[in-house]
Fold this protein.
Amino acid sequence: MKLKVKTNIDDYSIIIGKNLCSKIKKIISNEKINSQKFLLVYDSKVPKRMIRSIVSRFNKKRIDEKKIVFNEKSKNLKTVSSIVKILEKKNYSRNDCLISVGGGICGDVCGFASSIFKRGLNFINVPTTLLSQVDSSIGGKTGINSLSGKNMIGSFYQPSLVVSDIDFLKSLPKKEMICGYAEILKHSLIKNKAFFKFLEKNFSKILNHNKNFLENAIYKSCLIKKEVVEKDEKEKNIRKMLNLGHTFAHAYETTVGYNKGLNHGEAVLLGIMSAVKFGRQKNILNKDDYERIIKHLKKLNYINLNKYFKSKDISKIIFYMKQDKKNKGNKINLILLKSLAKPILNKSFEENEIRLFLKKLINK
Amino acid sequence: MKLKVKTNIDDYSIIIGKNLCSKIKKIISNEKINSQKFLLVYDSKVPKRMIRSIVSRFNKKRIDEKKIVFNEKSKNLKTVSSIVKILEKKNYSRNDCLISVGGGICGDVCGFASSIFKRGLNFINVPTTLLSQVDSSIGGKTGINSLSGKNMIGSFYQPSLVVSDIDFLKSLPKKEMICGYAEILKHSLIKNKAFFKFLEKNFSKILNHNKNFLENAIYKSCLIKKEVVEKDEKEKNIRKMLNLGHTFAHAYETTVGYNKGLNHGEAVLLGIMSAVKFGRQKNILNKDDYERIIKHLKKLNYINLNKYFKSKDISKIIFYMKQDKKNKGNKINLILLKSLAKPILNKSFEENEIRLFLKKLINK
């Protein structure tokens, strides 16, 4: 399956399917990417045989490799510099290409490195997790962490190509599948009622690697995200809807310290739950849709903040919410739902309203 | 005088004139930049009274200041990080604003910092040298140096506003005026024969700070650059013409080590001379125009490479030319002139052709 994403400068393709890695050289030339040299940066967690199946298709002189241990701690300027140094040393030109093979962090770091080397060389993203296939690989947001927060440093930079091979997902643990599912669910909630219905019915098939349902869900999710980012590449306005649940989610994951107890997608599920409940409390979201969404989140078992936080964490959560990139002035911006597929942007709230709300959810 | 530059995302204005600093707050609000907070980053060389005349117009709570010693050595990731740290610490939002007051290096570093903080906050450039007013402040190229070359790391990022106050130029030494003049001359050569004629006649008035001629030359130079970058924001094609003389120039200045013996504009004059002579040798540039341009360069006294280089430097020059961002594969790309106002892009040459050519120019 193929999607074409329009950007301000150029178009690029997203290819979704099985057994794509072994065909990658062909795909690249079909897409008219005429690079002479390729630097393949890959996450140490990616199975070696998948890397081999890519590298073996290239002339040895034309491809360099760099393995990196990617995690929230290494998602920093130091890792970016280590990639840029290779590009410099081997005299890569703008017309050459960096290929990222890994999850969202790998793609974010490689995308950022690509954007700043000689003001931008070709970038091919091969996302290997469900989360990165349905979300971060589309839309050109790149980013690294700074001392004070997630993705505080970054750029908007469009890839030349995205190759989403679902064979990577075979080895993905349940927790990681749920992580990607969170963003699939979010896409349905902001844009497509029928897709939400499909998910209500088929979510367990998707989570259990039923290939057809999985491929379908990835495609639909990419399609929604593509349509949003095409209308607003630099997140001036409607793209903000993709942040449903994310103001809470970023604060949740930063508060627990990006540890394994709560991954990004899990934080997003809790964030969606929070945004949905807050929207209902403010009488913005209608009762029926509220109950349908909460029912689905209950089935996924991401409904209870008390599992992760204590009352004393609330100030910390608020502190991080105030650093959200969407905020203007001193208020906290939240993306809320009016109903299924009808998001509301640009609603801002006083920190005290949110503090009181969180006190009800976190009562330990 | 005011120019409006169209970009892929937004438009921005370039304001050129006298006594603009004291009116800057008014200019900012006229341009509908609604930031709450401003970080003013300025070069230590800018006269204190000019900084005061800007800062004093703002509410003290709304403006932060950071003085930096800018030079090619401090044009690096460390300086960028020091700026980003302040933005983070004081919780600047994307909607807030960084104001750069300084020459090209200050603008390049501040522009890059602006582009990567939260994927981009508002950026106002107040260029204080002739070079930055006529060239680097327009077009959205930002950049810092790496170990191996000038501007190897950077981004394309458009400012929200450029304010070119010619009062800054009063204190500029002759050498710095010539530096800016090099780019003015380049703009005339690639795009406007009548403007070149104007420069042939009036160059000494411009270099000697005749305000009307100076303002006129800045405006015309900005207009040419604006027209080029509007057609090709990301330097995919015709924007490359702005690099006339620059493949040589970058290699020259890197070879002498960015020292004060040869500043950027001086290197550009020598680079233009080299490109013009090389183009003539290859029978690309016609004889009449060749002689007119060389005659003008002789008046400026930038014609003799032997003043700066010895034969043993040639390999180093070639090495740096091969790292130019425009190169594809192993050849060296040069922008050449066919005639006045008729540049040729995408001509590439073997390093040996250029080596032989340089051997004729550098014969000590």
Summary: The radius of gyration of chain A is 20 Å. Residues 174-361 of chain A form a domain with the Dehydroquinate synthase-like, alpha domain fold (CATH 1.20.1090.10).
